[in-house]
Design goal:
The protein is α/β, with parallel strands linked by helices. About 35% of the residues lie in helices and about 15% in strands. It is built from 8 helices and 9 strands. Strands 4-5-6-7-8 form a 5-stranded mixed β-sheet. The chain has a 4-stranded mixed β-sheet with strand order 3-2-1-9. Helix 1 links the parallel strand 1 and strand 2. The protein binds adenosine monophosphate and manganese (II) ion (MN) (3 copies). The site of adenosine monophosphate has 11 residues, from helix 4 and helix 5. One manganese (II) ion (MN) binds next to loops.
């Protein structure tokens, strides 16, 4: 069975609309699927009938832990939850404040950034760093998105603003309040040492975190094995996803369910 519990649409920074992604997910043969856009569940308004695919409501919340940006995926959330809606409203306000701050920071670096143009381009979709990256490419100020992140927007760079995000435990609480399963997204992408990652896992567990992602897109061989150990040590169940953003040669939806190895899959509890 193919599952994919981490994907993005145009409602956040993905390239495909919810309907286009549904089509691709169906073609790929994914049986259990979640759209986990950054800080929004807007895609679900267009996905009521996902015929043939079991769709689990999800979201990827931005949060901060020990001064670092971290992502918490919420799965099987109640879309009608007032707590969830309040939390997402706060996330969107944070994104808006942050967009203004990113604009100021980039302008101070001598870059030409037109926030109104970026807003028009994003339309109703929530603004994130990828939108700034694409604008810098479109205006010829950097050669590609990768360079935009390397120079200006990536971790620790001038446009990487985390001060507006809630703390880890607040994000976990919002997911739990909506009856969801809180999953620590891509644990290896925070560039933490082994012992710092265990600190994060400890705090996540204490906050009410349920699971970690064992597979999140293409990843180094051996990583899943290390994450299995982490999951077992902390009693986490495990999730699998592609973190799909756009159809690229190295990125397609679907992960083989057997990747959960000898851990408990998150979907067992739903
Ligand atoms: P934000 O949600 O505004 O914090 O932006 C984070 C998003 O930017 C991530 O979810 C990725 O989709 C994207 N991203 C992060 N780092 C890079 C990178 N180095 N190159 C391209 N995209 C990136
Ligand atoms: Mn993204
Ligand atoms: Mn993420
Ligand atoms: Mn993601």
């Amino acid at each position: 069975m193919l599952v994919d519990l981490h994907t993005h649409t145009t409602a956040s920074d993905g390239a495909l609309t919810p309907a286009e992604l549904l089509e691709l997910v169906r073609e790929a043969g994914v049986e259990l699927w979640s759209v986990t856009d950054h800080d929004t569940v807007a895609a679900y308004a267009e996905l009521e009938a996902a015929g043939g695919v079991h769709l689990v409501a999800g979201v990827e919340l931005s949060a901060v832990w020990a001064g670092r940006g971290v992502h918490i995926v919420g799965l099987n959330v109640a879309l009608e939850s007032a707590d969830l809606h309040e939390a997402l409203h706060r996330q969107q306000s944070a994104r808006e404040r942050r967009a203004v701050m990113i604009t100021e920071r980039l302008q101070r670096r001598g870059l030409n950034v037109d926030l109104d143009a970026i807003r028009r381009e994003a339309g109703a979709d929530s603004i994130g760093r990828p939108h700034f990256a694409r604008a810098l490419v479109a205006t010829g100020q950097v050669k590609d998105v990768k360079t935009a992140f390397q120079k200006y927007l990536g971790a620790g760079k001038t446009g990487d603003i985390k001060t507006e995000w809630p703390e880890l435990d607040e994000a976990v609480l919002a997911i739990r309040a909506a009856g969801g399963t809180a999953v620590l997204a891509h644990p290896a992408k925070y560039r933490l040492t082994r012992s710092r990652l265990r600190c994060l896992a400890d705090d996540f567990k204490a906050a009410g975190g349920d699971a970690i992602e064992l597979v999140c897109g293409p990843q180094e061989q051996g990583l899943a094995g290390r994450l299995v150990e982490l999951a077992k040590d902390f009693g986490f169940s495990v999730s699998l996803g592609s973190d799909f953003h756009a159809p690229l040669p190295w990125s397609r939806p679907g992960v083989e369910a057997a990747e959960v190895r000898d851990c408990t899959p998150v979907w067992d509890q739903w």
